[in-house]
Amino acid sequence: MKSHVWRPLVVVLAVIAVVLVARKFLVPADFGIGARGYMYGWHRPGNEQQWKEVKVKYKTAAFCKDCHRDKYDEIKESPHRNINCENCHGPALNHPDDPKSLTIDRSRELCARCHTRLPYPNSSRGAMKGIDPKSHNVGLDCVTCHWPHDPRKEGHKR
After folding, report:
1. What count of Cα atoms within 13 Å lies in the side-chain half-sphere of residue 15?
2. What is the CA radius of gyration of the chain?
3. How many other CB atoms are there within 10 angstroms of residue 49's CB atom?
4. Which of 138, 157, 154, 136 has its CA nearest to residue 146?
């Protein structure tokens, strides 16, 4: 064969050899060993303890409902029923041990993420009730007029 065939073939074989050697040194020996056989992902028997030591930052609304049942029930009956508590209150990582660790975001920007009117009439996002934040009650937080757990109710009167 001519050299224009051999040279690229040697380069390809060299690249394959480098990848296999690098894989031997970089991939842990227990990767892919498990009940399901060879698998991709983060689970390896050798690092189970590391994962057990990871603190869960977000705990979902189910974590909140034991202590805040009234608010949980209120939001589950409102248009905001699919929004998780931690979207507005922040991660429940240290709560309830440190109640001040939860912040309540009352900013217009938070509400505007979903409620800025978008010109997409054929999408479910376009069907959501929206406002123009540049002209709708500028300078006021949304919670002044709207109750966040159930926006159909009146907000905080100041």
Report:
1. 6
2. 27
3. 7
4. 154
Confidence of residue 16 (pLDDT cuts 50, 70, 90): very high
The 3-state DSSP class for residue 23 equals helix
pLDDT, position 144 = 85
* Contact call for residues 114 and 121 (beta carbons, < 8 A): no
Side chain identity at residue 145, one-letter code:
C
**pLDDT by residue (tens digit) across 90-138?**
888 888 888 877 877 888 888 888 888 887 777 777 677 788 888 888 8
Quote the DSSP letter at residue 120.
-
Is this structure's pTM higher than 0.85? no
* 100 token code pair: 């001040």
Please give the single-letter amino acid code of residue 131.
Answer: I
Cβ atoms of 27 and 39 closer than 8 Å: no
Is residue 38 within 8 Å of residue 30, measured between CB atoms?
no
Residue corresponding to tokens 């056989």: 37
Which residues are within 8 A (CB) of 116 and not within 5 positions of it... i.e. 6 or more apart?
A: 130, 131, 132, 133
The mean pLDDT of 60-86, rounded to a whole number, is 88
Six token digits for residue 43: 């689970």
